[in-house]
């Protein structure tokens, strides 16, 4: 019996040291990333819920190492004893790690609670609406589009901004079509006066563009997705496709917290060029812009997301991000995010 107790204590000691090493590696990573949500998770009460995991692990280990004949009475007796020791050891280690983590990260846990309390009492204010600075863009998509349209052209603009971008060009061409896949087309159409050459439409029920073959001189894709085969179908020979989109590095500080598995690929100007060249189009120009947005308050971040993506303005849902941002604002007086966009102009040659 004494031998079993000594064996159990040695096992607990080894397991505890391994868990401490793993914990310290994780703590260092979370501290560098200012992941205050992780530190909040350390302050939860102890709850052991790894019985199923330990049963599976002990069974595998016992099947491999047991010298007793399989599935005999002795085999079952020793397995139950082995399993009990494993569960007891794991529970003791989990509790010890919880105590260790709370003492080791006491300051960070207190800071995280203070930040969380500040977020819970957050109230948006218009005075913080412009409390951020943005680097100057390296290109202007409106100016570039005007290089590729003529007064007699038929222009199609795909967007998700309820016609805001397209409204700049309502008098520049003979006819303009605004394709809004998610917004009420009648409401957008109401922005344009009677007799205007602008027609607001949407995609067909099968996701196609609402035009006959080779009827459009220039298609502009403004910060939305497109079907390359549809672009090729509706463009006239010699017509232009202008695509302005966000790249994978846009707002990466937010996106990578919640969608890490979608960030393995890369979408940038070169990737877009390859896509268009693969369907036989000739790329005539491309631009790429990397910049930053520097926020000086949580209110400014909230106001910014309210404009560009209202879902991201949900502080409760994205607490991890807002806690991280608030911590960096406290430490450095600002929180910085990356912006990434690109523009490619391609011509249909056949």
Short description:
The protein has twelve helices and eight strands. It has helices at 2-32, 36-41, 51-65, 73-104, 106-120, 141-146, 185-189, 228-234, 252-258, 269-277, 298-308, 319-332; strands spanning 132-134, 154-158, 175-179, 198-201, 216-222, 235-246, 282-295, 335-347.
Question: In which range does the helix fraction lie?
Answer: 40-55%
Low-confidence parts: none
Query: What share of the residues does DSSP label as strand, in percent?
Result: 15-25%
Gross morphology: elongated
CATH topology name of the largest domain:
Rossmann fold
The order of strands across the largest sheet is 1-7-8-6-5-2-3-4
CATH class of the largest domain: Alpha Beta
Radius of gyration: 30 Å
CATH superfamily of the largest domain: Vaccinia Virus protein VP39
Quick one: how many beta strands? 8
Per DSSP, the total helix count is 12
Order of helices and strands: HHHHHEHEEHEEHEHHEHHE
What structural class do the secondary elements suggest? alpha/beta
CATH A-level architecture of the largest domain: 3-Layer(aba) Sandwich
User: Strand count, sense and closure of the main sheet?
Assistant: 8 strands, mixed
End-to-end distance: 87 Å
Q: How many domain modules?
A: 2
* Residue-averaged pLDDT: 88
